[in-house]
Design goal:
94% of the residues lie in helices and 0% in strands. The protein is an all-alpha fold. GO terms for molecular function: dynein complex binding; microtubule binding.
């Protein structure tokens, strides 16, 4: 989690504490006001009693007439009734204040419950944001691994192109050697034809050159030996050609197996792409759930506006993660397209490679290179399987 997220969490926590303090402070003020009013009522009652007893004691100590005393009694009775009515009014006001205090206590309990619910909702949204951050990091690692796989495939393609060029050079060299051998064979055939003509001429002139018969016979034997040698060389060349052709067929079979392995790797890569699509669907569902949370929070009263602003910040962060995920998806699709193009180029080079093979030793070296490439692809496949398992 970065510094911005830590600051947002701190800010949200401070606002929640501040808001809870204000909410808890309101009932305290009401209780203080109620207690002050009760103290004022008690003080007024004490003052009234004190005045009443002072008046009675003053009247008792002063000798007055019966009429005056009667008037005083009536006034005192009226004053007592007034004080009693005031006392009753104060008692009613006390009951109303007690009811108001009870309502304030209930409201305080409701506000505390609502605050706890908002805390739980905020923690849920925070956990969801952390989960999205984890998914984004996972997708970023997967993109880096795909980029690494693409780089390895590109390096393999460059190696194949280099081998292709080397095979072309080797083909030209073998073609020149083959042309030289063909020219030499033509010369030998011409020489053999000349020797056959000379043999016929010797037969027609047998009587004429009878004295040189032994020499001609030796020359004929020599020519026969040369012919046998040429025939053995030709048979050897034929056998070498058959061996080379058999090696070529074996290498073509191995090459087809390598192509099948590459197709299997492509199918597994497509399976991973499907898995990534499923993850995107899950991500969209999370976005819908987030929108539903947003609709539920829109009904909160004006006193939760500060918490709603923090929630909107979380939403913006989630939208940023969605944008990053879409960018990653576009990069992944681009890598898939480039990988397919590279695979098509690789198949084209492999087709040309079949037509360019002419020598057994070069075919063997090429087979070793393809076997090494197969090993690298198997290693890449194992890595992809491990990443999928993880």
């Amino acid at each position: 989690m970065d510094t911005m997220e830590i600051d947002d969490d701190t800010y949200i926590g401070r606002n929640l504490v501040k808001q809870d303090f204000y909410r808890s402070k309101r009932p305290s003020r009401c209780v203080t006001v109620c207690l002050g009013l009760l103290c004022a009522v008690l003080l007024a009652g004490n003052v009234g009693q004190f005045i009443f007893y002072e008046i009675i004691s003053h009247r008792a100590s002063t000798p007055v007439s019966f009429d005056t005393q009667t008037q005083d009694n009536a006034s005192l009775t009226a004053e007592r009734d007034g004080l009693q009515s005031r006392f009753d009014a104060l008692a009613d006001e006390k009951k109303q204040l007690q009811i108001f205090l009870s309502n304030l206590t209930k409201e305080k309990t409701s506000v505390i419950t609502e605050r706890d619910e908002f805390k739980a909702s905020f923690n849920s949204v925070k956990n969801e944001m952390d989960q999205l951050q984890t998914n984004y990091s996972h997708f970023k690692q997967e993109r880096d691994q795909l980029q690494k796989s693409y780089n390895d495939t590109h390096a393999t393609l460059d190696q194949l192109q280099t081998d292709h060029k080397n095979l072309i050079v080797s083909k030209d060299q073998l073609q020149s050697r083959f042309n030289a051998l063909a020219s030499e064979k033509t010369q030998l055939q011409i020489s053999f034809s000349n020797l056959a003509k000379e043999k016929d001429q010797l037969k027609t002139e047998k009587d004429e050159f009878k004295a040189n018969f032994n020499n001609v016979k030796k020359e004929k034997d020599q020519l026969q030996a040369n012919f046998n040698t040429l025939k053995q060389d030709s048979d050897q060349l034929q056998k070498s050609y058959k061996d080379t052709h058999a090696s070529l067929e074996r290498l073509q079979t191995d090459h087809k197996n390598l192509i099948a392995s590459k197709d299997q790797l492509q199918s597994r890569f497509n399976a991973l792409a499907n898995e990534k699509t499923q993850l995107q669907i899950s991500f969209s569902n999370l976005a819908k759930e987030k929108d539903q949370l947003k609709q539920s929070y829109n009904s909160v009263a004006t006193e939760r506006d500060e918490f709603k602003a923090n929630f909107n910040n979380v939403k913006n962060e989630k939208d940023q993660l969605q944008a990053n995920y879409n960018t990653f998806k576009q990069d992944s699709d681009q890598l898939q397209k480039t990988y397919n193009d590279t695979h098509a180029t690789l198949q084209h080079l492999q087709t040309d490679h079949k037509n360019l093979i002419a020598s057994k030793d070069q075919l063997q070296s090429r087979f070793n290179a393809l076997a090494s490439e197969k090993t690298q692809l198997q290693i890449s496949l194992s890595n992809l399987a491990k990443e999928k398992t993880n």
